[in-house]
TrEMBL record:
<comment type="similarity">
    <text>In the C-terminal section; belongs to the transposase 35 family.</text>
</comment>
<feature type="region of interest" description="Disordered">
    <location>
        <begin position="418"/>
        <end position="445"/>
    </location>
</feature>
<dbReference type="InterPro" id="IPR010095">
    <property type="entry name" value="Cas12f1-like_TNB"/>
</dbReference>
<dbReference type="GO" id="GO:0032196">
    <property type="term" value="P:transposition"/>
</dbReference>
<keyword id="KW-0815">Transposition</keyword>
<dbReference type="InterPro" id="IPR001959">
    <property type="entry name" value="Transposase"/>
</dbReference>
<dbReference type="GO" id="GO:0006310">
    <property type="term" value="P:DNA recombination"/>
</dbReference>
<keyword id="KW-0233">DNA recombination</keyword>
<keyword id="KW-0479">Metal-binding</keyword>
<feature type="compositionally biased region" description="Basic and acidic residues">
    <location>
        <begin position="434"/>
        <end position="445"/>
    </location>
</feature>
<feature type="domain" description="Cas12f1-like TNB">
    <location>
        <begin position="332"/>
        <end position="398"/>
    </location>
</feature>
<dbReference type="Pfam" id="PF12323">
    <property type="entry name" value="HTH_OrfB_IS605"/>
</dbReference>
<dbReference type="InterPro" id="IPR021027">
    <property type="entry name" value="Transposase_put_HTH"/>
</dbReference>
<keyword id="KW-0862">Zinc</keyword>
<feature type="domain" description="Probable transposase IS891/IS1136/IS1341">
    <location>
        <begin position="199"/>
        <end position="304"/>
    </location>
</feature>
<dbReference type="Pfam" id="PF01385">
    <property type="entry name" value="OrfB_IS605"/>
</dbReference>
<keyword id="KW-0238">DNA-binding</keyword>
Length: 445
């Protein structure tokens, strides 16, 4: 399977102004990642697996070392130089770490440092140990790699040249290469940066409200409705059958491992189907509207288990479990992230609006009552008699509330382009080789 996706990693940029013909043109640095499937042979697959194992080892050992230091001193704070200073000692203790490129191990420490910073700043839980086959394996090369588009190969230090399935041409200056292992094989993500003009949305002034739902993936305030693809529910029976077969097999036997692989591939197909649907949905919305107002939903709280405890058992646990599965199958979090990403590319804005009573408020008389929505699909105001589609009514309420709060300065765009300092120049000897172009490739590819 060839992935043909183009993923924007970051649109934050340094904006510059140039005087040209008495007008100021703003420019920005855009980072993009181009993802392709690799075609490694057996020896290369083993080398990649070894490198992933080395990174996992130093990550876990660094985390364990940090815990030991915190037990001795509660005020201890780890930093990246301290972690990297441990690597030479570990290489002497474990010589097989020398088979992995030094910068790949350093990037593993950088990932650990990022996890620690996220914990101390309240954005994530405390880092946990990575497990083989449980966590996605990946290695990152910040330097010394090469890309040859003519031969469709990428060079990885201490591994060699590896072919990849080119689905499009790469543009921009190379910044790093990340190799990932997924259920159906190895993939490479090539991060680039290039200077572009700051985007101005072609549909400036067009605003829309969006209501996310379960029966419908999204409803817009103009009446347009996007039906769900139900990726998980459509494959639920097939997945259950495969899992029953796995249960009857001898654990860790060859057939058991093959069946596990089939299940993992099916899960990836489900995720790919869901993401493809949401990509197309977000593209359609963002290209036709410059401003999107959506609900500020707390998805984690909405999908919390209703099981309760032994002392206080929950009620309607089965129904709540089914609702949680339906919400997660729609991929609201993925959709909101894609809206932010694509609006940054196009120069639009996305605003998260407080969701309280958006589905219970009449857009005509503004009466608020749970009796206004007697069914899932129909809205009927008990006060003025206004009727309409419940999801479209909610989207209109989101639009009006968002416009009102934005005018009062109480909302901040979740997709605004941020102004950062320019990236530092690399030192001599650190520049990557230019991409070797295919002679037949178009110049603006």
């Amino acid at each position: 399977m060839n992935i043909e996706c183009e993923k924007t990693v970051s649109s934050t940029s340094q904006i510059r102004c140039h005087d040209a013909d008495q007008s100021k043109i703003k420019h920005m640095i855009r980072h993009k990642a181009f993802v392709f499937k690799l075609k490694p042979d057996g020896a290369t697959r083993r080398s990649l697996a070894k490198a992933c194992g080395c990174v996992r080892f130093v990550y876990n050992k660094g985390l364990d070392w940090n815990k030991e230091q915190r037990e001795k001193d509660q005020t201890f704070r780890v930093n990246y130089p301290k972690l990297c200073a441990l690597l030479p000692e570990w290489k002497e203790e474990f010589p097989w770490l020398g088979e992995c490129h030094s910068q790949v191990l350093q990037q593993g420490m950088k990932d650990l440092m990022t996890s620690m910073v996220n914990f101390f700043e309240g954005r994530a839980k405390f880092p946990r140990f990575h497990k083989k086959f449980k966590d996605e394996d990946s290695i990152r090369f910040p330097q010394r790699f090469k890309v040859n588009e003519a031969s469709r190969q990428v060079y990885l230090p201490k591994i060699g040249w590896v072919g990849y399935r080119r689905s499009r041409f790469i543009n921009g200056k190379l910044r790093s290469v990340t190799v990932m292992r997924k259920a159906d094989g190895w993939y490479v993500s090539i991060l680039t940066e290039r200077e572009i003009e700051a985007p101005v949305h072609p549909k400036a002034g067009r605003e829309i409200g969006l209501d996310a739902g379960v029966k419908k993936t999204a409803a817009l305030s103009n009446g347009k409705i996007y039906l769900p693809v139900d990726a998980f529910r459509s494959s639920k029976d097939k997945l259950a059958k495969m899992q029953r077969r796995l249960k009857r097999m001898v654990p860790h036997s060859q057939n058991w491992k093959k069946q596990q692989q089939k299940i993992a591939v099916l899960h990836k197909e489900i995720a790919d189907t869901r993401r493809d649907h949401l990509q197309k949905l977000a593209n359609d919305i963002c290209k036709n509207h410059a401003v999107v107002y959506r609900e500020d939903l707390k998805i984690k709280n909405m999908t919390a288990s209703a099981k309760g405890t032994l002392e206080e058992p929950g009620t309607n646990v089965r129904q709540k479990s089914g609702l949680n599965a339906a919400i997660l199958d729609q991929g609201w979090g993925i959709l909101f992230g894609l809206l932010d990403q694509k609006m940054k590319e196009l120069g639009g804005e996305v605003f998260a609006v407080p969701p309280a009573n958006t589905s219970r408020t009449c857009p005509k008389c503004e009466d608020v009552s749970p009796l206004n929505r007697l069914t899932q699909a129909r809205f009927c105001c008990r006060k003025c008699g206004f009727e309409g589609n419940a999801d479209v009514v909610a989207a209109n309420n989101i639009l009006r509330r968002g416009q009102r709060l934005r005018a009062c300065g109480e909302l901040q765009s979740t997709a605004a382009v941020q102004v950062n300092r320019p990236s530092r120049k690399r030192r001599a000897g650190q520049q990557q080789e230019p991409i070797r172009r295919d002679p037949q490739a178009p110049e603006n590819a």
